[in-house]
Structures are given as C-alpha cells and as structure tokens.
Amino acid sequence: MGWNWLCAIFIVSSMPPYSDSACTFPSILSGSWWDSNRGVLTFGSENINGLSFTIYGTNLQNWDCWQVDGFQGQNDGGTLIIKAEDFLSAFGVNFYVYLCLNLTRISAYSFYYYQMYDRQTNANNERVFVTDAPEDSLTKDDICKKQLDSGFDAEFKLLLKKGSEYGARQELPDQLLGNFEYILIDTNGSYCSSLGGQMETCNDKKTMVFDYTKCKKEIAYSTSGNLSCVAKLQKGSHMYVMMYNPDPAEPIYRFTCFVVSMDGTRASYVYKNCSSNQSPDTFSLASDGSPIGGKLSLKINATCYNSYYETVWTTRSPTTMSGSVHDTTNVTVQPLPHDTTNVTVQSLPPKVTQIPLPTDRPSSPTTQNADTIKHSDSQENANKGTVSAEGGISTGAIVAIGVTIGILSAVIITVVIIYLVIKRRPPSIKRKVLSFMNISK
C-alpha cells in the first residue's frame, strides 16, 4: 500500500508510542548537539530527543536507532537510520516513518549531514521515508536513496557538539579571507550604500567581523557582528559556508548559511541551512515562495589567504616605486579571482600599479613596502663599469688611468738609467752608445 494516496482519502491519528530499537548509536554521538535546522538534539544510547517533525498533522518527537553503518575510525562518518516511535494509522493500517542521515566528519566536534530521501509533498516536504511495509522486509537501500532530486547538494545540515563550539571552528574559504567593503540587500531594501559597510577576516581567519560603526544594519541575524565558520563545502560553481552565531544572548537564529561566488564578490545568506533554490545572486525562498535572507555585494580591498596579504596599492608617481605606497583612498580594483597569479588592476587616475607577488610567500601575514624593493641581479650587473648619473668615474676608467701612469713611469726610469751609464763610462764607450742611439754630442 503506497503513501501518496493518503493525502486524498483518509484521516491520520497518532497511536501510543511504539519502541523497538534495533541498534545503539556510536559513542561519539553521545550527549547534546546543536542541529543547524532543529535546535538541540540529545543522543542517548538508543534514542534521540529534541528531533521534531510534523507529518500530515502528526508531530513526531521520539526517534529510535534502527540501523548504524560506518563510524569505524576516529575520523569516520557514517549513516544513521532512525525510526519514529509514533506511527500513523488509518483504516486499521499503520504507517511508519524513517529518517536516513548520512554524516560526514568535519572535526572532533562537528559533522555535516544530508537527509537521504526525496522530498515528500504529503509530509510537509520533509525528506523522510513513509511506508506500511513490515519492518523486517526493509533494507538500507529502501530507506536511503542514492539518486536524489536536483538541488540536493545545497541542503546540508550541521551537527555541532554543544559546549565545544570554539573548537569546532574552521578556516573560512579563500573567497572570504580578506578586507572587504559591502552593500547589503535584504527583502526590505538596500543598506550600506556606496560600499559603506566593512568586513574583515584576516585577524582571525575563522571569524567574519562586520564593523557596525560603518553600517549599523545587522548582518545574518548577529547583534555583535561576529560569525564563526563551522563548515565549508564547494558544490559546483558555488561555495557553501555555514556560520555559527556566538552571541551570548539567544539569537533569533544560531546558524546562517552563505552561498558565495567563486570570485568572492557576491554572496547570499539565509537562516538555518542553505536551500536548493539559492545562489550568490538570489534570495532563498520560503515554502510559500516568498524571498528570505539577504544578499551582499562585496568589494575586495585585500586578501589574506595562505597566510599572505595580497594588496593593490597606489603610488605617488607612475614611474617610480619610491616614497609612500600605502595610500589606498582612491584605489579601484577589479575583483580578485581565486587564482591571483594574473590579477589585473584598472588604470584609473591616480594611476594604479600592482606590486609583483614574490615566489615564496612569507609564513606570516605581511605587507610589502615599496622602499624595500630592489633591482634584479641582472640590472645590477648591467650597471657595473658605467659612469653614474651624477658624473662620477667608473671602476674601469680608474684602472685604465693607473695602467697609463705605470707605463710612463717605466719609460722615465729607463731614460734616467741610460743617462747615468753614459755619464760614467770612458769617452770611447760614450761615443759608441751615442752613435747607437743616433745622438750627436
């Protein structure tokens, strides 16, 4: 008997709780966890508390372990199949609800997971498996589908160990590492116009910091302007980033999911988890089709991924690298791509000159001062043996003068010696020498 016909013909009622746990949960899951979509879940040895689904008018709150696959190694994830203790009944037929969770380990304190089934229109579009088939006739392949509907990849959710939120933080993706200006657009309008908002992620590469003194409009439901990265996934041409809100007061939403363009210039966000209809340029849509969340238009002023600041600077002169190069007031920059080896800069006055990036980047964030830039060895070699611009004599000229002086000195000494020899010899010898030298007395 199928499930889809239920919506048309019968009334559903909730029967007394039924429990027939067939397995125990891995010990790594024991205790309380934040679920990005459901709030706080508590795993016992055989059941989960806090997980609530409303399916065809029946609220299902108690779930038992039905099958566990994986979780063998310390860093391994696996698959959990859980079964609702309550069941749906109509005309004497019981319908059971199963949920398949495929977990991937992120850290010692976090997993991301997918619900492995197509959306069920008769179950509030939840990804659950509903059947009247006997339990002993079911297999994992019945409950956990491998081929799912389009957009499924975007709908990951997060489990974060309660009390270990700081240890679960992850470094932001390259697209969000840097100093940015932004414009915010939400369902009510545009804010921080003319790139008035500012965000930086270089001081702590695991945290987004929005400067509310520049633009007071709150971002991603955060009163403090601080959001911690807890998961990042690249799916197709988009980067998906799950952020945790550490505000001490209970926020409206503890988790926000960002969809970021690969060049880091556009992003959208929505509470809880990302949706299949969301992109960096479009809002997520609620179940009734209305837009929710917000969008950011980002201008990258500097990046700091791979422990290195890559900054575009202006110079005081278009033909020299001397003087101060840190005035970035009027810099206009093309968006930096993920690969910055061929970054180009718009030529707008004042002229913008990009400083070449070194081959070996330093191990800690640093900026390059133009006063320290030196000519290459080849240029230095080319300059050797030439006269300086100030009119000084080169080394080659000095050597030539020295050689000339030495030759002249030798000639003079030789003449003096000959003269002394002639002066002291007898007249006959003197005449012969003079005759040899063709000198007449």
From TrEMBL:
<feature type="compositionally biased region" description="Polar residues">
    <location>
        <begin position="361"/>
        <end position="371"/>
    </location>
</feature>
<keyword id="KW-0472">Membrane</keyword>
<keyword id="KW-0812">Transmembrane</keyword>
<feature type="region of interest" description="Disordered">
    <location>
        <begin position="352"/>
        <end position="388"/>
    </location>
</feature>
<feature type="domain" description="DUF7042">
    <location>
        <begin position="180"/>
        <end position="272"/>
    </location>
</feature>
<dbReference type="InterPro" id="IPR055470">
    <property type="entry name" value="DUF7042"/>
</dbReference>
<feature type="signal peptide">
    <location>
        <begin position="1"/>
        <end position="21"/>
    </location>
</feature>
<keyword id="KW-0732">Signal</keyword>
<feature type="transmembrane region" description="Helical">
    <location>
        <begin position="397"/>
        <end position="422"/>
    </location>
</feature>
<protein>
    <recommendedName>
        <fullName>DUF7042 domain-containing protein</fullName>
    </recommendedName>
</protein>
<dbReference type="Pfam" id="PF23069">
    <property type="entry name" value="DUF7042"/>
</dbReference>
<keyword id="KW-1133">Transmembrane helix</keyword>
